Each structure stands twice: as C-alpha cells, then as structure tokens.
C-alpha cells in the first residue's frame, strides 16, 4: 500500500462523505489516523477502510459486519479470510433480499385483492343508491 497520506477534508471530498461521518467511524474505532497537533493524518489503509465501509453500507451490511471484514484484513495471506467472509456475507444478504422480494410480491397480491374487494363493494353501494325508491 502506498505511503500517501490524506487530510480529513481530502478524504471527505474524494469519497463524497462528510467529515462528520469520518469522525464517527474514527469514534467507532474503525479508523485510527495519526495526529499532528489537532490535525488528523489518514493513511492509504484508512482510505481503503472507508471505501469498504461505504461499499458495505451500500449493499446493506451493518457497521458491525463491516468491522468484522476490516478486522480480517491481512495482505500477507492474500486476504483469503476476508474475501471468504465477504462472499459468505454477500450470499446471506442476497438471500435476505430474495426473501424480502417474495414478501413484497405477496403483499402486492394481497393489496390487489383488497383493492378489488373495495371496488366491488363500492360499485354495489353505488348501484343500490342509483335505484329509484317507489
């Protein structure tokens, strides 16, 4: 990994997140920038960590799941544990989404049925009102 460093504003601008979000991840122990006085100096590893957190959030991982993946980072082993864990989490997330999709489709069918019944009941009500009373 390169020895390039970043300020908090550099990372915020480059990754399109707020400095507040970066400080939050630091408070959660996910980032550990160097300090030069009051200035935070972030490493290339911090940048990769932030990218992993942001990617994880986009695909629905919790912060705890992101933390697990980050803790498995080990370039000396080719990150095999991290990659296998990521694949398992992806499969789990995909299964959750597929179940949610089935649940949504079932709910849509139930809404269709309820809507149809309401329309029929309304039509019957209007039909009875339209008949003259003699």
Automatic annotation (TrEMBL):
Family annotation (Gene3D superfamilies): 1.10.1660.10
SUPFAM superfamilies referenced in this protein's UniProt entry, alphabetically: Putative DNA-binding domain
Keyword Phosphoprotein appears in the UniProt entry: no
Stretches assigned to coiled coil: 80-131
GO MF entries: DNA binding; DNA-binding transcription factor activity
Positions of the HTH merR-type domain: 5-72
Pfam family, one: MerR_1
Keyword set, alphabetical order: Coiled coil, DNA-binding
Keyword Glycoprotein: no
Membrane-crossing residue ranges in chain numbering: none
PANTHER family from the UniProt entry: HTH-TYPE TRANSCRIPTIONAL REGULATOR YFMP (PTHR30204:SF58), REDOX-CYCLING DRUG-SENSING TRANSCRIPTIONAL ACTIVATOR SOXR (PTHR30204)
Protein name per Swiss-Prot or TrEMBL: Putative transcriptional regulator LiuR of leucine degradation pathway, MerR family
Lineage of the species this protein comes from: Bacteria, Pseudomonadati, Pseudomonadota, Gammaproteobacteria, Pseudomonadales
């Amino acid at each position: 990994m390169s020895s390039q460093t970043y300020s908090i504003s550099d990372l915020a601008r480059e990754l399109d997140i707020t400095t507040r979000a970066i400080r939050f991840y630091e408070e959660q122990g996910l980032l550990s920038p160097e300090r030069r006085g009051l200035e935070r100096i972030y490493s290339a590893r911090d940048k990769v960590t932030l990218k992993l957190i942001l990617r994880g959030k986009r695909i629905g991982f919790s912060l705890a799941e992101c933390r697990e993946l980050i803790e498995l980072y080990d370039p000396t082993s080719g990150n095999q544990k991290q990659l296998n864990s990521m694949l398992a989490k992806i499969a789990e997330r995909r299964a959750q989404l597929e179940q949610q999709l089935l649940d949504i489709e079932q709910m849509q069918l139930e809404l269709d049925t309820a809507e149809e019944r309401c329309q029929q009941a309304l039509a019957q009500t209007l039909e009875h009102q339209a008949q003259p009373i003699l």
